[in-house]
């Protein structure tokens, strides 16, 4: 059974129980109230009849004039032994025979609800006046009140059903949306947007699902980025190893050097996956990169100033710089220059070559996007300082604060241009 139906049935059941707990006692009270009101009216008419019947006339056996009663009430005069003298009533009344004690009596008498009031003389009980109403009539009035009460209960129950359906929908809809959103996670829909329902439990579950979806999305993105990054970064050293060994006279030393570079790259990738913070000397990283990338055909020149450490882990900076050097070697031309210098509160690590540069419609390639993601996590950015000709692409990395591991707090200088805005196809 669905939650909506369970909630609706529970509300209706509570409404039915409340109506029963309230309606049954009320029906009993109404029955007693009708009887009490009838006895009050009978007592009034019987007392009025006693005042209209002289005791001496009753004792003398003369003809008695029976007073008129209220609507539907029958008045009769009885002698002291309970025999009918005049009026409408049974020939013999057991209730009227009990007035010899001089007191008023009421209750069932035959098929009537009756009140008998004695007619007193100076020394004896002359007789009595009986006021009665048929029990069937009294019951009919009670049944009409019960029918009215049942109709009112039915109306209340109908309203309760409508309100129960509305409340059940309001309570169940947030959880139904949660179910749809949770199933959507299996279809790679992680942008969970659930409106606030005002139900604390549903809102808390929605917040938890939203946070979990973001975490899952982030983890999946990180894994996909890692796979793309690994594929991109491992391609060059693997190609170098294969080229060194695929010659007619295999260049084993070159292959070993490339293998060592491959080992470093793998270690860096694993370190990047753990996303550990840290700091390093950008000049040393640049010098090592120049050594690894320099070839007789494409010499690489290093220009460095004393900059101090930067707030980025060594593997992250090495891999980001490798991306820029790989682009310059693959897609550029002429001599390549690596520059390391202070740049306001950041450190600039620039790679320039003598190639044609970026076209106006160029968009960031896989390598630049990966490097940009790595540097941005440290609080830095990639900027294209010159698009064409002779492109100049730089990493802007925040300087490390004294005594701290990392410090992603700085930004670009005025006039700098983000790589994500400028675009690159390299």
UniProtKB/TrEMBL annotation:
<protein>
    <recommendedName>
        <fullName>histidine kinase</fullName>
        <ecNumber>2.7.13.3</ecNumber>
    </recommendedName>
</protein>
<dbReference type="InterPro" id="IPR003594">
    <property type="entry name" value="HATPase_dom"/>
</dbReference>
<dbReference type="InterPro" id="IPR005467">
    <property type="entry name" value="His_kinase_dom"/>
</dbReference>
<feature type="domain" description="HAMP">
    <location>
        <begin position="169"/>
        <end position="221"/>
    </location>
</feature>
<keyword id="KW-0812">Transmembrane</keyword>
<feature type="compositionally biased region" description="Low complexity">
    <location>
        <begin position="401"/>
        <end position="426"/>
    </location>
</feature>
<feature type="region of interest" description="Disordered">
    <location>
        <begin position="400"/>
        <end position="426"/>
    </location>
</feature>
<dbReference type="InterPro" id="IPR003661">
    <property type="entry name" value="HisK_dim/P_dom"/>
</dbReference>
<dbReference type="InterPro" id="IPR003660">
    <property type="entry name" value="HAMP_dom"/>
</dbReference>
<keyword id="KW-1133">Transmembrane helix</keyword>
<keyword id="KW-0808">Transferase</keyword>
<feature type="transmembrane region" description="Helical">
    <location>
        <begin position="145"/>
        <end position="164"/>
    </location>
</feature>
<keyword id="KW-0547">Nucleotide-binding</keyword>
<keyword id="KW-0472">Membrane</keyword>
<dbReference type="Pfam" id="PF02518">
    <property type="entry name" value="HATPase_c"/>
</dbReference>
<dbReference type="InterPro" id="IPR050980">
    <property type="entry name" value="2C_sensor_his_kinase"/>
</dbReference>
<keyword id="KW-0597">Phosphoprotein</keyword>
<dbReference type="InterPro" id="IPR036097">
    <property type="entry name" value="HisK_dim/P_sf"/>
</dbReference>
<keyword id="KW-1003">Cell membrane</keyword>
<dbReference type="GO" id="GO:0016301">
    <property type="term" value="F:kinase activity"/>
</dbReference>
<keyword id="KW-0418">Kinase</keyword>
<dbReference type="InterPro" id="IPR036890">
    <property type="entry name" value="HATPase_C_sf"/>
</dbReference>
<feature type="domain" description="Histidine kinase">
    <location>
        <begin position="229"/>
        <end position="401"/>
    </location>
</feature>
<keyword id="KW-0067">ATP-binding</keyword>
């Amino acid at each position: 059974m669905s939650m909506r139906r369970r909630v609706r049935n529970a509300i209706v059941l509570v409404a039915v129980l409340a109506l029963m707990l309230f309606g049954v006692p009320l029906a009993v009270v109404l029955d007693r109230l009708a009887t009490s009101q009838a006895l009050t009216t009978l007592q009034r008419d019987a007392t009025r009849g006693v005042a209209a019947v002289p005791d001496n006339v009753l004792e003398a056996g003369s003809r008695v004039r029976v007073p008129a009663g209220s609507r539907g009430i029958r008045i009769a005069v009885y002698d002291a032994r309970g025999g009918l003298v005049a009026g409408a009533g049974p020939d013999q009344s057991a209730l009227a025979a009990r007035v010899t004690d001089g007191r008023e009596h009421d209750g069932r008498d035959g098929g009537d609800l009756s009140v008998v009031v004695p007619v007193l003389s100076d020394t004896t009980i002359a007789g009595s006046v009986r006021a009665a109403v048929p029990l069937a009539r009294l019951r009919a009035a009670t049944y009409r009140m019960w029918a009215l009460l049942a109709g009112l209960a039915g109306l209340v129950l109908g309203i309760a059903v409508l309100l129960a359906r509305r409340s059940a929908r309001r309570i169940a809809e947030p959880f139904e949306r949660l179910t749809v959103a949770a199933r959507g996670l299996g279809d790679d829909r992680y942008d969970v947007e659930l409106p606030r329902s005002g139900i604390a439990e549903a809102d808390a579950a929605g917040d938890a699902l939203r946070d979990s979806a973001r975490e899952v999305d982030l983890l999946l993105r990180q894994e996909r980025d890692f796979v793309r990054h690994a594929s991109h970064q491992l391609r060059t050293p693997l190609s170098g190893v294969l080229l060194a060994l695929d010659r007619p006279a295999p260049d084993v030393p070159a292959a070993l050097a490339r293998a060592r570079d491959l080992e470093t790259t793998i270690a860096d990738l694993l370190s990047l996956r753990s996303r550990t913070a840290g700091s390093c000397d950008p000049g040393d990283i640049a010098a090592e990169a120049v050594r690894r990338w320099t070839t007789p055909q494409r010499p690489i020149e290093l220009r460095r100033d004393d900059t101090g450490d930067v707030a980025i882990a060594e593997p992250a900076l090495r891999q980001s710089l490798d991306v820029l050097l790989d682009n310059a070697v693959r897609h550029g031309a002429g001599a390549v220059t690596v520059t390391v210098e202070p740049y306001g509160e950041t450190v600039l690590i620039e790679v320039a070559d003598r190639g044609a540069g970026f076209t106006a419609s160029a968009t960031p390639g896989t390598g630049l996007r990966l490097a940009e993601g790595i540097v941005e996590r440290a609080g830095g950015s990639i900027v294209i300082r010159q698009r064409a000709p002779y492109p100049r692409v730089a990493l802007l990395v925040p300087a490390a604060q004294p005594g701290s591991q990392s410090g992603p707090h700085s930004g670009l200088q005025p006039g700098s241009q983000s790589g994500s805005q400028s675009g690159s196809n390299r």
